[in-house]
Write a structure and sequence with these properties.
By secondary structure, this protein is mainly alpha-helical. It is built from 16 helices and two strands.
Length: about 350
């Protein structure tokens, strides 16, 4: 399949339309990479055959991206590979997307600092420790998100615990380091570094990154059953109780018939088969709601001091407040759908 980087647009307007479409589709909906590439290839072919501009043929890029994502969601349970999670995304794609978002946020913050503090940004031991702490914590969170899709629940908690420890340790180190000026760097250099990181994350090979998070092949019945539980809870979003019931049933079959594991086949395919069904959509909505609530919590914790200061003349106060309002608004929809699903028929 032709990748987005291989497509050459004859008109600058079509190239800008495609960039806006890809950005909105990837950042808001995170479909599997093949969906994005297929949609762009279809648009390019239609534009080339008809000779008309993409905007006239497909409308606004954001609206078309929403339509493509909605169509993809209806096919997720049938077309996703066994290595994909509830949203049809593999661990490698999840890691690359989370890293991309982190790089874009870092670039945006650097640009805002450029706007507020001028061309040159000063660095001290404290600011260097802060940058190292944030970068390490972001990488650990990216890894935790990917490990969840890989079905490695214990590793997820280990990565999140390490991220919390990094934040706590970094805060302590920052409190004892001297805050004297060391050097200054041009703000555009930091923006360019974040842009390069985002471009690298976008071009990461998902298949290669998947191998970073894949556990060793399970050997023995107990290892197979532990892997099954991790896949059901992590990749497929089942509750602990629901996953335990499936594992207990499989364990009873193994005890009664030693050759049952051969009949079950590949553990990832078996987990995907167990997770299929009408409750899959509810689990996907629940995971979206938890992610949205987590984003609200993260924004609230990160901006707590700024919001508590309530300095109405501060640009950062209004930026933090706007981001928090946006996060709450984004969380309302998934939370309402989850609550409505619980009240509806099973």
């Amino acid at each position: 399949m032709t990748s987005a980087a291989d497509i050459r647009w004859e008109r600058k307007a079509d190239e800008e339309w495609a960039a806006a479409f890809e950005f909105h589709l990837v950042m808001r909906h995170l479909p599997p990479r093949k969906v994005t590439e297929r949609a762009l290839a279809d648009v390019h072919e239609a534009v080339r055959e008809s000779g008309g501009p993409a905007r006239e043929l497909f409308g606004e890029p954001t609206a078309y991206a929403d339509a493509v994502a909605a169509e993809t969601e209806t096919e997720t349970g049938e077309t996703s590979p066994t290595g994909a999670g509830l949203d049809g995304v593999t661990a490698g794609e999840r890691f690359a997307h989370t890293l991309l978002v982190g790089a874009l946020i870092g670039g945006g913050l650097a640009a805002l600092r450029w706007f507020e503090d001028g061309l040159w940004l000063g660095f001290s031991w404290v600011s260097l420790a802060a940058v190292a702490m944030v970068a390490t914590a972001v990488l650990l969170v990216c890894g935790a998100v990917a490990l969840r899709t890989a079905g490695r629940v214990r590793a997820v908690w280990a990565a999140l615990g390490a991220a919390v420890a990094t934040a706590a340790g970094g805060s302590f180190v920052m409190s004892v380091l001297p805050d004297r000026h060391l050097f200054a760097l041009p703000a555009p250099l930091l923006v360019a570094a974040c842009a390069a990181l985002a471009a690298g994350a976008h071009r990461l090979s998902a298949d290669r990154v998947d191998t970073w998070f894949a556990p060793p092949r399970p050997r023995g019945a107990e290892a197979w059953l532990r892997r099954l539980e991790g896949l059901l809870r992590g990749r497929h979003g089942m509750s602990r109780k629901e996953a335990y019931e499936h594992v207990a049933e499989a364990r009873s079959h193994v005890r009664e018939k030693p050759g049952a594991l051969r009949e079950f086949g590949d553990v990832e395919a078996y987990a995907a088969a167990l997770a299929a069904g009408p409750r899959r959509a509810h689990r996907a909505e629940r995971r979206k709601a938890l992610g949205a609530a987590g984003f609200v919590l993260a924004v609230g914790v990160a901006g707590f001091d700024t919001l508590r200061a309530a300095d109405l003349s501060s640009f950062w106060f209004w930026l933090t407040a706007a981001v928090l309002v946006y996060a709450v608004a984004e969380a309302i929809g998934p939370l309402r759908r989850v609550v409505g699903g619980r009240r509806g028929p099973a």
